[in-house]
Write a structure and sequence with these properties.
Blueprint lengths: L3 E10 L2 E11 L4 E5 L6 H8 L7 E6 L2 E2 L5 H6 L2 E3 L12 H6 L10 H5 L3 H20 L15 H14 L4 E5 L7 H18 L2 E5 L3 H7 L2 E6 L2 E6 L1 H6 L1 H8 L2
Parallel strand pairs: 3-8, 3-9, 6-7, 7-8
Antiparallel strand pairs: 1-2, 1-4, 4-5, 9-10
Helix pairs in contact: 5-6, 7-8
Length: 252
């Protein structure tokens, strides 16, 4: 059974067709790259898959359930999580507070438990704190749990955003330009981290990225879009040699 099936997704904004007939199938544990020139429609595709935009036409199935058009918080409950091209941390909250927010939809205590500080509240909060610290340790952020997110260096903010997405316990993780703003050493470390995350958390990963070294080093399959349409798909070696891909990036 496929994990994700996107069939003929099209979205129009007024008279502009931003994405046309986009289709993608992913299985459990896949690492798939979605690449293309600036303005090709990649982030728009992510926004349809995660409920930010409702497609004009087409279907999205996740674990055999139709999910197109449902709200982003409902998508998260279905076990799809994402990061953003522009970092969207709660910058005036601490590192660990940013992570704990991802557990909100899993909380079982209610308002009464919280207001009256009943044992169920303390028990669940302690469990969430423990889980958060384990994830922070994985990302080498455990020693900074009480720092404000805005005070972290850029690369660590990126790692925190990925950690926060993983705290939602996804089966599919969408990474939107995770290497943006990173230096070569940080990008190399991210490449290894993405592979490790797939294996350790037993999830599939779909990523948008402009750093071709990272894409070719980590992705098993690649889909290329230009002007909102798929122009190529295949394994990295095929994509490297594809004349349509070369033309899209370098010009005719």
């Amino acid at each position: 059974m496929a994990l994700l099936k996107a069939n003929d997704l099209t979205i129009k904004f007024g008279g502009l067709t931003a994405v046309s007939d986009f289709s993608l199938e992913m299985n459990e544990h896949d690492i798939v790259g979605l690449i293309g020139p600036n303005g090709a429609g990649k982030t728009t595709i992510f926004n349809m898959l995660t409920g930010v935009y409702a497609p004009t036409s087409g279907t999205i199935e996740f674990l055999n359930e139709n999910i197109e058009g449902i709200k982003p918080y409902e998508i998260t409950k279905k076990k799809i999580a994402r990061t953003f091209q522009n970092i969207r941390l709660f910058k005036k909250l601490t590192v660990i507070e940013n992570l704990k927010i991802s557990f909100n939809y899993q909380i079982k205590y209610n308002l009464v438990h919280s207001v009256l500080r009943l044992p169920k509240y303390f028990k669940e909060e302690a469990e969430i704190t423990e889980k958060s610290r384990k994830i922070l340790k994985i990302f080498n952020l455990d020693k900074k749990e009480n720092e404000l997110a805005c005070n972290l260096p850029y690369g660590e903010q990126r790692r925190l955003e990925i950690a926060r997405a993983l705290a939602a316990d996804p089966k599919l993780l969408l990474l939107d330009e995770p290497a943006a703003g990173m230096n070569p050493q940080e990008t190399h470390e991210l490449t290894e981290l993405i592979k490790w995350i797939r294996n350790e958390f037993n999830i599939a990963i779909l990523l948008i990225e402009h750093d071709m070294k990272l894409v070719m080093g980590v992705c098993e399959k690649i889909v290329v879009v230009d002007y909102g349409k798929i122009i190529a798909r295949g394994v990295p070696e095929e994509i490297k040699r594809n004349p349509k891909v070369i033309e899209a990036y370098l010009g005719g």
